[in-house]
Design a protein that fits this description.
The complex is a heterotrimer of chains A (about 500), B (about 100) and C (about 500).
Chain A (H helix, E strand, L loop, with lengths): L7 H9 L5 H19 L2 E4 L1 H16 L11 E5 L26 H8 L3 E6 L33 H8 L5 E5 L6 H7 L2 E4 L20 E5 L2 H11 L17 H7 L6 E5 L9 H16 L3 E5 L7 H16 L20 H12 L2 H14 L5 H22 L4 E5 L15 H5 L6 H6 L2 E9 L6 E8 L4 H19 L10 H8 L6
Parallel strand pairs in A: 2-3, 2-4, 7-8, 7-9
Antiparallel strand pairs in A: 1-3, 4-6, 5-6, 5-10, 9-11, 10-11
Helix pairs in contact in A: 2-3, 2-17, 7-8, 8-16, 10-12, 10-13
Chain B lengths: L2 H10 L6 H18 L2 H4 L17 E2 L9 H4 L6 E2 L2 E5 L6
Antiparallel strand pairs in B: 2-3
Chain C lengths: L4 H7 E12 L36 E2 H13 L3 E2 L6 E4 L9 E4 L6 E12 L2 E16 L3 E5 L11 E5 L6 E7 L9 H19 L11 E11 L9 E6 L2 H20 L7 E5 L6 E3 L12 E2 L10 H10 L4 H12 L3 H9 L3 H9 L4 H19 L3 H4 L2 H12 L5 H12 L5 H8 L7 H14 L1 H8 L6 H11 L6 H11 L4
Parallel strand pairs in C: 12-13
Antiparallel strand pairs in C: 1-10, 1-11, 3-6, 4-5, 4-15, 6-7, 7-10, 8-9, 11-12, 13-14
Helix pairs in contact in C: 1-4, 3-4, 8-9, 8-11, 11-12, 12-13, 14-15, 14-16, 16-17
The chains are: A alpha/beta (about 500), B alpha+beta (about 100), C alpha+beta (about 500).
């Protein structure tokens, strides 16, 4: 029986067999959102009328016998960083409150062309800067495993919506781990595809050379189905790779690691890593070995410098990308007294419209690019990027994939790291190198940490344009773990209905 | 970093900040810069810079006219408009 | 006592630098598919990309790259095998992204030159203007300042922005410092911009209309005491909107700086604006501190790496250089220097070339454009080319050559065409201007003239040929000037036994 607890591929099969209609499926999810989102706060905007109307059209097409896309009629939660025509698109920022773009992002065009039904826009750290969604101007999202904890970030709304069964699929974007770390801490699956394989057109840029949209789901196969829909060449994005996307769905169905060489990166262990995280990681490695994979211990020394390079490159690009929010053409405009000049209005609006983390990064990036400091900071960071690419190239000459924990810890408490930017930045220590090198990475659940019963993520990394390897290895591990757990890890999540009452309304503080 | 420098950055970035905010961000920037400065340890002269992760060249589009937004769509997000144009406060600057 | 220009150049040596911005005539913008039509309704040629909407991304126009390479090759530049776009970061409301996508330390073309010829006291002399770089960038939007007493930016109540121009491809051509021009600096500046304009026009890469802003010139100028081997502080003069203004702006700035230095003052490095009415410059708003543009490579665009095969193809497709072409045309048409220069100065070479191409005789074409049409244009306050098409001029000239029109009739035809009465043929029909070539009709008029002046006719019969003039005049008058005078003369003399 299809329910909100089904996987997207199960739902798709039920739709195909006409056991359920898309309208029913969409309505079911809105009912769930109504029930739990006051506590979870995964969504910033819902497009109920639009989604139900769309579902009806898809049902009619299906009734008429039209050939439909595999995900036709399936609901999806869209991170609020992607433009959707005439729908609010805020990036979690006050500066874009009430802005409705006059155009669709390419990701949205592809979702629409495949008849995926967009339920609404999900919460995120402002302009995707953060690892907890605490930086959203509209209040944090909460982790469905424990509503006092963060659901990861920046795409915490998307991951929370999956774990809370508010949507079976979601879109995230990943600049330094914003798809994978939220997936890790919510017990869901998230993939950052190879840079250049999912169009960035309409993805509101944080750091152009690092940003990449990708699929979020509750299973590896569901992620692959969504990956296939959104990936592909787009001439509107000059950095888009004009090559066929590997067959990720076939890889997700295969899940065979016999003879595959898996590299374990030495630098991604040790100090700062929670015991339960390392234990679950080791168990997953044991499983892969049992399945016939060969483990190779590797060192990537430059990865120790990745975090530092990232916190120069990303803020530098961001300082330029976010210059356009100036109160002139769209978005917020604040003028305090009559007769203020455009320049003053820009200053005041940006001062009030951006949150502290965004301002911090704009200032940092402005500094790193300014004359006299460029070489020492931004220029040096670009060189580190070369070293990281070289380390990956060397590693991939020896192994098929690399693996690591996705994040050093499980979900922390809301507010715990809010006043310590450096501690917060450490969340992305394992995910950042892939962004700097442009390669693909996946996080999937590895179990619960014994200390806190919270999900732990297992990260897989593959060479450029070999994203199918992520799905192949991921599917093999997932299958074995599901057998061990007796199903999806989310079966172990506490009943949200008992929890939301306590937190209802606290999302938007 | 001196407060004067922080003020200069805020000016370059066109962000109005109170003195309190400037002092707070001065401390934070110092902390972060101390931490990220370690990139200099390995950024040797002979290492080339990577600005794009995926190396490609000559990505061009044909010189073809595509449809533009309507004037109404273009101005749909404008905080103020007049005579089909974006209305903005007086601009101080060069003519 | 203020120094005159001549006094300034006795003491100071100028150093010139010219930055020319050229709007390319591509169909679509530099980074998006919006049209580039001049004069469209405000904000109708805009899209998410050129409006800088969140999420939009640029995509490079291939034609703009090709045009830039053409320009570089025509200016004897090297073409960079690997060059990139950068972001120039600064806030200004006419710039939608608050950064300009431009080329910084890696221009597409560099190290070229352009030789220009000017008249000097010792006759024609060639100056070599070295080109530092040719790089690509995008244009900004246009602002309209509303309210305030002056109608200018200062004191305006608010501004209105139109982004149709934002994102139109621009090529910036920057010279190296031009030294050793002495008193000819203003002429060299003008000759350089003129020669550059001619090249750009011959390449068909731009409309090169200074009055519409598709060619814009900034002139940098500094003075140093003669033989001092030093370099003075330079000013940058913007808003120089015609070829004549280039010369005037440089001259004006030389006089201003010379007087400033002479009175013990210091030239400050600043942007100045050229004032068309007075020929002087006035200071722009001084910036509180030097801008820090925080250039970095544009992450949304990839490097441009023109293959040498492509560059050679473009090189081989370049048209004849304007200076070479002019020498060739002058020889072909056998025009003396002075008259050829007159045509160049009147900026009518292209009109004459096209008229000749449409089948007219070069001498007549030149004389019509420089004579009658220029006169009428002057009266109308327009440029000759605006009045009449080269095809129509050629048609009129051909009709003259065929004896269908007299010069006098032709002037009426041209007047009719200019008055929008139609094509030359239509004007001829409407105004009934055809040469009377029907012998019987002419004979009738001749007989009438003889009957009216029998004495004169007799004198002609008696051998006084010049007396025939009065009779011919009478015939011309009675035919309304539509008869061919030579033909009338021939028929008349024959009739009176003198043919």
């Amino acid at each position: 029986m299809t329910s909100i607890f089904s996987t997207a591929s199960e739902m798709a099969e039920s739709l195909k067999q006409k056991e359920i209609s898309s309208v029913e499926l969409v309505q079911m999810h809105y009912d769930r959102i109504e029930k739990v989102d006051s506590g979870v706060h995964a969504f910033l905007h819902l497009d109920k009328a639009g989604a139900l109307a769309k579902a009806k059209i898809i049902d009619d097409k299906r009734a008429a016998g039209e050939k439909l896309s595999p995900l036709a009629g399936i609901p999806l939660a869209l991170k609020d960083v992607l433009t959707q025509k005439n729908q609010p698109t805020t990036c979690g920022s006050k500066i874009l409150e009430n802005w409705r773009p006059p155009y669709d992002s390419t990701v949205v065009e592809r979702l629409n062309a495949n008849d995926v039904v967009i339920l609404g826009k999900t919460n995120m750290d402002e302009f995707a800067m953060g690892s907890s969604t605490e930086n959203s101007a509209y209040g944090p999202s909460r982790n469905p495993w424990d509503l006092t904890r963060i659901p990861g970030g920046s795409g915490g709304g998307s991951s929370a919506s999956l774990a809370a069964f508010e949507a079976p699929l979601a879109i995230g974007t990943d600049t330094g781990g914003s798809i994978r770390q939220p997936a890790a801490v919510t017990g869901t699956v998230g993939v950052k595809p190879t840079y250049g394989t999912v169009s960035r057109y309409g993805l509101i840029a944080f750091s152009s050379s690092l940003d990449q949209a990708g699929p979020c789901a509750r299973t590896v196969l569901d992620a692959a189905l969504l990956h296939q829909v959104i990936a592909g060449y787009d001439e509107k994005d000059s950095t888009s790779i004009n090559q066929p996307i590997p067959d990720v769905v076939a890889a997700a169905k295969k899940g065979e690691v016999k003879g595959i060489k898996i590299g374990v990166v030495k630098e991604f262990q040790g100090e700062g890593y929670q015991k339960g995280v390392l234990n679950r990681f080791q168990e997953s490695l044991d499983i892969l070995v049992n399945l016939g994979a060969e483990l190779v211990e590797l060192s990537c020394p430059s990865f120790d410098y990745a975090l530092a390079a990232y916190y120069l490159i990303a803020p530098s690009e961001a300082s330029s990308n976010l210059a356009r929010f100036d109160a002139m053409r769209y978005g917020l405009r604040i003028s305090e007294t009559a007769g203020q000049s455009a320049e003053e209005v820009m200053r005041i609006t940006r001062g009030k419209g951006f949150g502290p983390e965004v301002k911090r990064r704009i200032m940092l990036g402005t500094y790193a690019l300014s004359s006299g400091y460029y070489d020492a900071y931004y220029g040096s960071a670009l060189k580190v990027r070369t070293l990281i690419k070289r380390d990956f190239e060397k590693a991939f000459s020896q192994v098929d994939v690399l693996v690591s924990p996705t994040a050093p810890t499980t979900a922390f408490k809301i507010g715990e790291k809010a006043n310590d930017p450096l501690a917060m930045y450490l969340n992305d220590i394992c995910t950042i190198p892939t962004n700097l090198a442009g390669i693909g990475g996946m996080s999937l659940p590895a179990g619960l940490a014994e200390e806190d019963n919270l999900p732990v993520g297992f990260q897989i990394m593959a060479p450029v344009m070999q994203d199918d390897r992520l799905y192949n290895v991921g599917a093999a591990l997932e299958r074995a773990l599901h057998e061990k757990w007796g199903g999806n890890i989310l079966k172990q999540i506490p009943d949200l209905n008992n929890l939301v009452g306590i937190f209802a309304g606290k999302g938007s503080n | 970093m001196e407060l004067k420098e922080v003020k200069h950055l805020a000016n370059l970035a066109r962000i109005e900040m109170s003195d309190e905010e400037l002092i707070k961000i001065q401390k934070e920037l110092d902390l972060i810069l101390n931490s990220v400065a370690r990139v200099q340890e390995v950024a040797k002269d002979d290492i080339p810079a990577t600005s794009h992760a995926i190396e490609m060249v000559n990505v061009f589009r044909k010189d073809e006219v595509k449809s533009s937004l309507s004037n109404q769509e273009a101005l749909s997000g404008a905080p103020a408009q007049e005579e089909a144009r974006f209305k903005v406060p007086q601009i101080l600057g060069e003519e | 006592m203020a120094l005159s220009f001549d006094q300034v150049i006795e003491k100071y040596e100028p150093t010139l630098g010219l930055e020319v911005h050229v709007e390319l005539n591509t169909k679509s913008k530099m980074f998006c598919g919006c049209a580039t039509t001049f004069g469209a309704e405000p904000n109708t040629q805009v899209c998410p990309v050129c409006l800088g909407l969140p999420g939009a991304l640029p995509a490079v126009n291939a034609k703009a790259i090709e045009s830039s390479i053409k320009i570089g090759l025509a200016l004897n530049c090297k073409i960079s095998p690997f060059n990139r776009f950068a972001r120039k970061n600064y806030f200004y409301p006419d710039m939608p992204k608050n950064f300009q996508t431009s080329q910084y330390d890696e221009p597409i073309c560099y190290d070229g030159y352009l030789d220009v010829e000017i008249d000097t006291d010792e006759g024609k002399k060639t100056f070599r203007v070295e080109i530092e770089r040719v790089h690509m960038e995008e244009d900004t939007g246009k602002s309209l300042h509303v309210g305030g007493a002056t109608g200018r930016i200062h004191g305006a109540d608010y501004s209105l922005l139109d982004y149709n121009r934002a994102g139109i491809p621009l090529v910036e051509i920057v010279t190296k410092m031009v030294k050793g021009t002495g008193k000819y600096a203003p002429e060299v500046a003008k000759a350089y911009v003129t020669a550059l304009r001619d090249i750009l026009r011959s390449l068909e890469v731009s409309d090169v209309k200074m009055e519409q802003g598709s060619l814009r010139c900034d002139a940098n100028l500094s003075l140093a005491p003669i033989n001092s081997n030093t370099l003075g502080t330079r000013s940058e003069t913007k808003n120089v909107n015609s070829l004549r203004s280039v010369e005037r702006a440089v001259r004006g700035e030389m006089i201003r700086q010379g007087n400033l230095l002479e009175s013990g003052g210091k030239v400050i490095q600043e942007t100045r604006h050229f004032l068309e009415e007075s020929g002087e410059t006035r200071p722009g708003r001084s910036k509180e501190q030097a801008e820090d543009y925080r250039y970095f490579q544009e992450p949304d665009l990839l490097p441009v790496a023109p293959e040498s095969k492509w560059v050679e193809e473009i090189r081989n497709s370049l048209p004849e250089k304007p200076a070479v072409r002019r020498k060739r045309l002058q020889a072909e048409w056998q025009v003396p220097d002075k008259e050829f220069d007159a045509m160049l100065n009147a900026d009518l070479l292209e009109e004459v070339v096209q008229t000749v191409a449409a089948g007219a005789d070069p001498t007549r074409a030149r004389s019509w454009w420089l004579g009658e049409i220029s006169r009428l244009a002057n009266e109308a306050g327009k440029s000759p080319a605006e009045l009449i098409s080269t095809v129509d001029v050629a048609t009129v000239i051909k009709l003259i050559e065929q004896g269908e029109l007299t010069d006098k009739l032709a002037r009426q035809v041209v007047e009719g065409v200019i008055n929008k009465e139609g094509t030359p043929q239509e004007v001829i029909v409407k105004r009934n201007l055809k040469v009377v070539s029907d012998d019987s009709a002419l004979m009738k008029a001749i007989e009438e003239a003889i009957a009216a002046q029998p004495d004169t006719a007799q004198r002609v019969r008696d051998g006084n040929i010049p007396a025939a003039g009065a009779l011919i005049g009478a015939v011309m008058k009675s035919t309304g000037g539509q008869a061919d005078a030579a033909k009338v003369r021939q028929l008349l003399l024959k009739h009176l036994g003198q043919g």
